[in-house]
Amino acid sequence: MNDEMIPLSPDDTFRFSCYGDVPCFNKCCRDLNQFLTPYDILRLKNALEMTSSDFLSKYTLQHTGPESGLPVVTLKPADQRELVCPFVTEDGCRVYENRPASCRTYPLARLASRSRETGEITEHWALIRETHCRGFEQDKTWIVRKWVKRQGLLEYNEMNDLLMEIISLQNQRDQGALDMKSRHMFHMACYDIDNFRVHIFEKGLLDDMKMDADHLESLKEDTALLKFGMEWVKKVIFKA
């Protein structure tokens, strides 16, 4: 059987389960090409009690997206030959409660599109049936929308859709990769948020914006800072 992508609606069902007794347990954590979103990084660096700068340095590689021209972050494999996830153990994922969105979504894939006219997000789902995965042989049956809720994806998807808006702006701009200054601002505000916070509160990055004191104080919390950072990128780099 070849790998398949099977379109599903939110009310469709699929059969899947992943646990230690499944013969392929942990195999999907190898041969890895794992992209990380800004919210993935926020959750992982907090779970590991690291600054964003230290997390990025130790666990990631940085690229320029070949299609978007935007800075992209991928997970650095623990084993460069077998491309093993640095967080996988014999007993499973050691950051499971804070695992990236793509790990949570599997064996589903989510494609989201945003209307330019209304701003409304439309979701499309598909089941990824990979030949190596034995989870499809298990008895547990799921409804797509219940899987999404059970895996804690609602917050991840909300945050990741903010990044999708930036990618859409870049696609409309159609000028290739960002210049060096814009790449630095994007990377800091979206990925290296502890450094972004330092620039705000210690280096006066936002002094010209004359922000309300309560709003400024709220940026000391990570999720609020990340949401603001992505809006800041839209305003400063894309003039949106």
What do these coordinates show?
With 240 residues, the chain is an alpha+beta fold. It has two domains: 4-161, no CATH class; 167-236, no CATH class. The protein contains nine helices and ten strands. The chain has a three-stranded antiparallel beta sheet. Strands 3-5-4 form a three-stranded antiparallel beta sheet. A two-stranded antiparallel sheet has the order 2-10. Strand 8 (108-114) and strand 9 form a beta hairpin. Helix 1 (38-47) crosses helix 2 and helix 6 runs antiparallel to helix 9. 25% of the residues are buried.
Task: Write the SSE topology.
Layout: E1 4-8, E2 13-15, E3 35-36, H1 38-47, H2 52-59, E4 60-64, E5 71-75, E6 88-89, E7 92-93, H3 101-105, E8 108-114, E9 121-129, E10 141-143, H4 144-150, H5 153-173, H6 180-190, H7 193-201, H8 213-218, H9 222-236
Antiparallel strand pairs: 1-9, 2-10, 3-5, 4-5, 6-7, 8-9
Helix pairs in contact: 1-2, 5-9, 6-9, 7-9
Number of distinct beta strands: 10
Task: Tell me roughly what share of residues is in helical segments.
Answer: 25-40%
User: Structural class of the helix and strand makeup?
Assistant: alpha+beta
SS field, number of helical segments: 9
Tally of individual domains = 2
| Overall pLDDT metric | 93
Distance between the termini: 47 Å
The description of the largest β-sheet is: 3 strands, antiparallel
Proportion of strand residues = 15-25%
Q: Globular, elongated, flat, extended or rod-shaped: what is the shape?
A: globular
Strand order of the largest sheet: 1-9-8
Radius of gyration: 19 Å
Following the backbone from N to C, one meets helices and strands in this order, namely EEEHHEEEEHEEEHHHHHH
**Uncertain stretches:** none
